[in-house]
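Tokens in:
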């Protein structure tokens, strides 16, 4: 038997088609989170042979199965493309609803379609070689990353039964590589096309899809083969998405010198308005539980905090309200995206343990803040803790604890400006009277403190950016 050594830790992140930033939108009561798989304990000799140092992009696949605690399948033999870039790996992201789950199958498949590593099942002949065979339980909390560490063994000549599987149940995956470049097509300027960055999502006919970040140059991409044609969705901030279809033969015929040209029409730009009012035109206020009848309409911070009072030795809970005058938005406009940009001067210190996602039994659960839609009128210079307006949780935007090397954060608050869809639990259309900033789900985290419209530095005041279309 060969000696097992610790090879390396490879981070594989599973998220939704959307962006994971520090802020994540939840569309149901429990919310969604992200699973992060960290792989270790690979055999040295096999690792060297199957994970070579080839500098070119190599496409691997991950196959995994997940069940909930009642044995109901969540993912069954789901294939995720895994791309090797030198010594690093990136994979497709998958979002999972909050809850308790069991990982019951996990393996890595090479570009030739062969299983090269697999996690043994409990009770299987090779299970004794690992400390924690499958199934491995894990918990997904809203808005956070849960780390799971399946221990893998090299397959070599071992049959599936050695790992506890009836069969590896794989299919041959033939990667398809092609070259492409994205242009911003503007007939007004010379030259009429300019290379630009964009986000490209490729959809195969078998349900596979993956999103790529395109650079402003020729890009070499590898997708999953097997489809006669592929749907491309091209996205760029401030422009309407472009949908197109290409045959697999066309993709195969591309070269670095003759790449597939993707164009974003300059005329497909969204209309945009930016609102960043100051003290005279801004509308925001802070409310506090320890001064429940006092108005803080001129408070220079937009905050949601839970901090101790040095004199009273009690905890003060502060929440904030903010609203923007949308009179400049055309009545016939269809809102496509809304971004809220917030700046801060000195961040509130907090225990780094809040950045981790652990089981509640370990003493740390997810804590952060939310922005909720205000559905009742309120006055900036009259609102108090005791008179705070009604809010709703539908479409609320979550803000997780973060550490950044810049003093600003951009939040996607589109859900607070759109009517809820019929599939949500609360499909009632409510008026929008602004946003309510509070800690969530309980007041344990120290909180967040950003500049308000009354902050003395104009560039640090809250900014709302609205992208829209007209009929």
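Residues out:
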């Amino acid at each position: 038997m060969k000696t097992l050594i610790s090879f390396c830790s490879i981070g594989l992140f599973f998220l939704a088609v959307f962006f994971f930033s520090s802020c994540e939108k939840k569309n149901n009561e429990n919310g969604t989170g992200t699973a992060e798989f960290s792989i270790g304990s690979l055999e040295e000799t096999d690792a060297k042979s199957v994970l070579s140092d080839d500098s070119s992009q190599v496409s691997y696949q991950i196959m995994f199965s997940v069940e909930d605690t009642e044995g109901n399948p969540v993912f069954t033999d789901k294939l995720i493309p895994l791309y090797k870039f030198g010594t690093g790996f990136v994979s497709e992201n998958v979002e999972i609803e909050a809850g308790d789950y069991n990982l019951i199958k996990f393996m890595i498949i090479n570009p030739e379609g062969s299983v090269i590593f697999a996690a043994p099942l409990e009770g299987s002949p090779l299970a004794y070689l690992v400390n924690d065979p499958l199934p491995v339980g894990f918990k997904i909390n809203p808005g956070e990353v849960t780390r799971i560490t399946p221990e893998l063994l090299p397959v070599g000549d071992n049959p599936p039964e050695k790992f506890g599987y009836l069969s590896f149940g794989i299919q041959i995956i033939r990667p398809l590589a092609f070259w492409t470049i994205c242009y911003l097509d503007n007939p007004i300027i010379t030259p009429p096309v300019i290379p630009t960055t964009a986000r490209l999502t490729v959809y195969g006919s078998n349900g596979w899809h993956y999103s790529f970040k395109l650079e402003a140059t020729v890009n070499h991409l590898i997708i999953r083969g097997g489809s006669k044609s592929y749907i491309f969705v091209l996205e760029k901030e401030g422009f309407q998405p472009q949908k197109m279809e290409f045959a697999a033969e066309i993709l195969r015929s591309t070269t670095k010198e003759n790449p597939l040209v993707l164009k974003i029409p300059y005329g497909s730009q969204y209309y945009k308005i930016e609102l960043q009012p100051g003290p005279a035109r801004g509308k925001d206020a802070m409310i506090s539980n320890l001064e429940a009848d006092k108005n803080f309409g001129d408070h220079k911070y937009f905050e949601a905090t839970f901090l101790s009072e040095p004199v009273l030795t009690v905890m003060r809970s502060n929440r904030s309200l903010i609203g923007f005058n949308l009179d400049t938005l055309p009545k016939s406009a269809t809102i496509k995206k809304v971004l809220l940009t917030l700046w801060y001067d000195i961040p509130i210190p907090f225990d780094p343990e809040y950045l981790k996602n652990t089981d509640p039994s370990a003493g740390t659960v997810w804590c952060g803040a939310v922005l909720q839609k205000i559905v009742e009128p309120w006055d900036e210079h009259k609102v108090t803790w005791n008179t705070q307006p009604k809010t709703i949780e539908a479409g609320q935007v979550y803000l997780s604890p973060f550490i950044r090397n810049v003093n600003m954060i951009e939040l996607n608050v589109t859900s607070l400006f759109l009517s809820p869809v019929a599939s949500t639990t609360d499909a009632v259309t409510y008026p929008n009277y602004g946003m309510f900033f509070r800690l969530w789900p309980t007041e344990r985290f120290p909180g967040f403190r950003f500049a308000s419209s009354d902050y003395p530095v104009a560039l640090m005041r809250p900014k709302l950016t609205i992208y829209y279309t007209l009929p």
